[in-house]
Amino acid sequence: MSQSATITASSARPLAAPGTAALPAIGRTAMAAIFLLSGFSKLAAPAATIAYIQSAGLPFPPIAFAAAAATEILGGLALVLGFHARITATIMTLFTLATAFAFHDHLADQSQFINFWKNIAMAGGLLQVVAFGAGAYSLDARR
């Protein structure tokens, strides 16, 4: 067995293919884009967002609005930067699953069905960050 093929407990990081170091940063940025766009769109139309939250029957719509906008914007920025990426991705996974079940639960409606499964797929991508970290191009890698 060659030296490069030997994996020890201290080198338990997955072996990446050459030229792929930037892929985790690209993936994090792609996932963050939907959160950032959604968070800023909430800030642009707070009354409509609060009314939508209220129509879903969630408690305390103004507080839920503020929490959702903050989660999406701050979580999105943290994902892009790779800042505490595993914790951030865990929070964003829970947020994404909660929104899937709170806002996209009418699966007989094709649009709701697609959005529900989009959220599930996003949660799957976020779990990749939880499992494997932020990658080389991140603030986490600098620590």
Automatic annotation (TrEMBL):
It is found in: Cell membrane. The keyword Transmembrane applies. This is DoxX family protein. It is a multi-pass membrane protein. Keywords: Cell membrane, Membrane, Transmembrane, Transmembrane helix. Its main location: membrane. The chain crosses the membrane at residues 32-53, 59-80, 87-104, 116-139. Belongs to the DoxX family. It holds the Pfam family DoxX. InterPro entries: DoxX (IPR032808), DoxX-like_oxidoreductase (IPR051907). It comes from Sphingomonas abietis.
